[in-house]
Fold these 2 entries.
Entry 1:
Amino acid sequence: AQKVTQAQTEISVVEKEDVTLDCVYETRDTTYYLFWYKQPPSGELVFLIRRNSFDEQNEISGRYSWNFQKSTSSFNFTITASQVVDSAVYFCALSELAGAGNMLTFGGGTRLMVKP
Amino acid sequence: GAGVSQTPSNKVTEKGKYVELRCDPISGHTALYWYRQSLGQGPEFLIYFQGTGAADDSGLPNDRFFAVRPEGSVSTLKIQRTERGDSAVYLCASSQGGSSYNEQFFGPGTRLTVL
C-alpha cells in the first residue's frame, strides 16, 4: 500500500529565512508520480509540482526547489527567502501508475507560518 | 477559464439527515475525483469517475456514501443518515485524463457540519 509521511506538522520561520519541508513516501510500484500542493487559508489546493519516478533531477522554480532522492524515498521542498505569502499548509502526495485511476495519497501536511 | 466549482460552500445538517454535495468539473475533463479532508489532516480519496462510470470507489467509507456522474460532467456525492463523524471538507478534483501524470485541479470544497 502507498503511504506518504510529512513528519513536520508545523514550521515557523521569520521572513527571508530558507525553509525545507520534508516528505517521505512508500510504494511497491516502480513507476509513480510525486506531487506538492499548497493549501492557503482560503482552502483551495494549488498544484505546485509533479515529478515522475524516473526523473531524479532536482527542479528549481523561482524561490521554490525540489530534491527527489529515490534511494531514501524522499521528495523534499525548499522555499528560499520565505515570504509572508508563503504561509499555508503544504501537502506532498503520491500517485501510483497501477490501478484504475491516479488517486492521490496525501501526507498529513506541514503548516508553514512565515512571520514578518 | 472556469475552475472546478462546488456547491454549497457550507452545509450544516442534523444527524440522520440526507445531504447532496455537487461538483462541476473543468469543461472537457473526463476524470473526476472526490476526497474528504478532516480537520488537520490531508485529503483522503473517496471515489474516482472516468466518464460516467465509477472506476474506483474503494475509498468510500461505507454504504451510506454514494456518488453519481450521470452525464459524465457534473457529479453529486450523496450521504445518507449522516453522522457527526462525517463532518469534514469534501473536495472535488478533475483532470483531463485518468492517468497518474495528469494534474488534478481541485475545487474550493464543501464544508459539511453534522450536528
Note: The mean pLDDT of chain B is 93.
Entry 2:
Amino acid sequence: DQQVKQNSPSLSVQEGRISILNCDYTNSMFDYFLWYKKYPAEGPTFLISISSIKDKNEDGRFTVFLNKSAKHLSLHIVPSQPGDSAVYFCAASARIYNQGGKLIFGQGTELSVKP
Amino acid sequence: EPEVTQTPSHQVTQMGQEVILRCVPISNHLYFYWYRQILGQKVEFLVSFYNNEISEKSEIFDDQFSVERPDGSNFTLKIRSTKLEDSAMYFCASSEDRDLFYEQYFGPGTRLTVT
C-alpha cells in the first residue's frame, strides 16, 4: 500500500533553522491530511491537520502546506528545536469513503535537530 | 492533559494463544480505533468503533480479531489464536466527535511478541 509516501527516511537540521518534511500521495480521493510526531516508546502525537479546501494551515512553529495538483504536502517547522527530534508521520483520509475514520500513514521521516 | 492509556506495555504469548489488549480512551471521546505497526513497517489501520459497533475495518481485521467496549471506560482488542505475524506494536486511539473525527489521539502502544 503506497498511497502515502514519505521518501526521505531521515532529515538532519541545525537548531534555529527551518525543517521541511515532505509527503506525497496518490489517491485523489484523500481530502484530509494530518501530521503526527512520534518519540521512541510512545504513540504518535497529533500535530496539525489540513483539509483539502485549504492550501495552508499554521499553528505556532508548525505550518502545513498542501499542493493538491501535485498531490504533495509538506510540514515546516520554524525555528527547529532539539526537542523536535522525532519521527514524523504524514497521514491521509478520504472522508467521503472512509466513514469509520481510517487514516493511511506514510513510512515516517526521522528528524534530528542538532544544537 | 487527558491521554489514552494502554495495558500491558509488553505482552509475550505463544502461538495459538488468545490475547486481550486493553485501552482506556480519553473520557469524552466517542470514536475508538486500533492500529498496528509491525517492526520497520507503516502504522496500519485495523478497526474503528462507534456507538458500540464496528464502523470500519481493514482486511487485516479478520475473524481472529474482535473488539469490545465492556464498560464505560475500557476498549479491548482480542486476538483469538495468535500467529507469529501478529507480532507488532498495537496502538489504541480515540477522537472526540464528528468534526474532529480524524484528529485521533494515540496511546503509548502495547508491544505484542508471539513466539
Note: The mean pLDDT of chain A is 93.
